[in-house]
Amino acid sequence: MTATRVLVLNSGSSSVKYQLLDMRDTQSISGSAAGRLAVGLVERIGEETSRIKHTPLTGGGAEEREREEPIADHEAALKAVSAELAADGLGLDSPELAAIGHRVVHGGLKFSAPTVITDEVLAEIQRLVPVAPLHNPANITGIRTAQALRPDLPQVAVFDTAFHTTMPESAARYAIDVATADQHRVRRYGFHGTSHAYVSRATAKLLGKAPEDVNVIVLHLGNGASASAVRGGRCVDTSMGLTPLEGLVMGTRSGDVDPAVVFHLARVGGMSIDEVDALLNKKSGLVGLCGDNDMRVIRRRIDEGDEAAALAFEIYIHRLKKYIGAYYAVLGRVDAIAFTAGVGENAAPVREAAVAGLEELGLAVDGELNAVRSDEARLISPEYARVAVAVVPTDEELEIAQQTYALVGNRP
What we know:
alpha/beta, six-stranded mixed β-sheet, globular
């Protein structure tokens, strides 16, 4: 029996998201549920009551099962995932399981492609914890737990940063002392790479072109948000930097600020480094500006005349337009702008406002097309627009599965 299934694991500090996919026909699963065998989530790991949500997608039905019980740690979480899959005849002991693909947030410069996990690879991921303290430890825990459950199975790391390793040094370097930067690995790495990779290719497909023939600005707009400039399928710039804090205004993150803000808050405000860190990462962005980080709530408040919400939205759009203009200049020629992720895919007012006033750059949005809600990739620009504006639902799990299977799927 040929092993054609890939289990994708995204291990967070207190959660595990997962999908089981059959890779026999990867084209059929792009943008649809076909080929997906199960999806699920274990959340609130380590708390008094944890929650397990599991949806089997085989047998013509997709009926979610949900229960609450104590889940002490990631090992217990993955055992619960295994039990849910086994109940549908999809257990981790199946000979059809080819590999487990793990989302790993930070791969530094060493990892520019999906990588079979060895002790040496795991040690390098561990060494990168100082530049990804919130993410890499949870990723490592998920990997080690999966290895213990299936030590015979290839485990593959797919890195958020890998897609951005093609950035030229002129884009990746900060203008600080080179020796200091190199000693402490200070440079721009970028994140959301699996999403940017998937969406840039899907946008080229939507245009009926090969990725190497298309220049795309990808706008991944969720609670975390990032932009990328993709020339011929290769990232040449992205908005996030050493950490996911740099760049666009996000749900709770500030994005770009003058670095001296940190010194000012420490010297004048008496704030500790940890307090400034928490401010910029957890108490800034939209929530810092108006108290809400849900774009749906913010838009409702704007409709009700709320001035704080309106200003927060204007600041969010202003930053977004700055990056569109900057990446237009970086690319020289832009064939498409693609909106993706939770806000990008669902918030029509954000898309309209981001493009408004950029007609001289060949950008425009058709109001009727923009208002349509759909799970399919689609164009929302009028036919006369020189630059296509697209909405492309991202699929990071599919991207991880495809990269994993391409690496190990043909192994004996």
